[in-house]
Each structure stands twice: as C-alpha cells, then as structure tokens.
Specification:
Elements: H1 26-38, H2 48-68, H3 87-97, E1 119-122, E2 137-140, H4 142-153
Antiparallel strand pairs: 1-2
Bound molecules: zinc ion.
Length: about 190
Amino acid sequence: MPVSPTQAPPEPPPPDQFEIRFTAKADTVAKLKMVQDLLSHAVPDGNVAEVVDRALTALAEELLRRKFALTNAPRKRPDSPSPADEPAAVKRAVYLRDRGRCTYVAKDGRRCDSRRFLQFDHIHGRAVGGAFTADNVRLRCGAHNRLEAERLYGTPPRARDAGGARVDLVRFSGFIRSGADTRGTAT
Ligand SMILES: [Zn+2]
C-alpha cells in the first residue's frame, strides 16, 4: 500500500527549533534530492529538516561504529574467552559508561567532559601490564590522554592540545616522573 500524502505528519515539531542556512554545492543538492526520493515512503513531503536529521543520525551511527565499535549487534569472535572481553565490547561498555566524554576530573572537582579527540586510555598502561578491559580503560580527550602518558612514562610535555580542553602542564609538573613505575599512583 502506498503511503497517502494526505496522511497526518508522523510527529509534531519539537518546541525548540532553529533555522539553519548554508550554501551547498550542486552535488550536495543532488544528493539531498536523491535521498528525499529514497525516503519518499518514510518522509512523503520530503521535509528537508526531517531528511537532514535522518542523514545526520545515520552518519553519527556510522562514526560511532567506526570509532567506538558502538553497534546494536556485536559480533562474537571465536578466540575470545568471553564476549565481555572482546575489544569491541570493552569499547562499547566504556563509551556508554563514560557517556562519550572525557572523564578527567580536575583538582577543583570539575570533570572535563570534552568530546574532542576522544581516545581509550589505559588506567594502568600497557607497558606496566594493564589490559584492555572495561575496568582498566576510560575515555580521555586528546589533551588529557597525553597528560596521562606524560605522567606515566615521562615523555616530554608537548605544547598544547590541538582541539579541546586547554591543559596547564605546569600545574601538573609534580606528577611527571621520568620512567617511573606509577602503578600505585594511577587513579
Ligand atoms: Zn579532557
């Protein structure tokens, strides 16, 4: 049965709405029209806001799948002793537990919460035997991941994070020890 164009719209618009204006390439417009056609059953009126929302949702799901192994149907690997020990399962668990944000907490108690340049950080580094398990892995932004590496391995401080929270390395210089085994001090 074809969807009738006179059918009521599926959902009322949300209370908060924003106008977005931008200039698009002809190729982008052609893609938009193609996707509108492909969505003609789900979005009969081709509503651009709805089509763009679906496009961004699909892209976000693809990026999360690629970067953080977030998927609704994790694959079972035969060489894994337990599904919970698979790297993809650990990534999913850590990403969801840490709400997709950097977990670094400053001395004043504020959490960084950056979503920029997120990495999976070993609490106890691989060099000191730390495993890739949910208990030993956390999300850190690029700056705080480097800060932790410097603290653990004493690599020379780099100037600044390229795209996220600003880090005052001088404040933390007391934690930087060259080559020290910090198993007991990692938090
Ligand atoms: Zn951070």
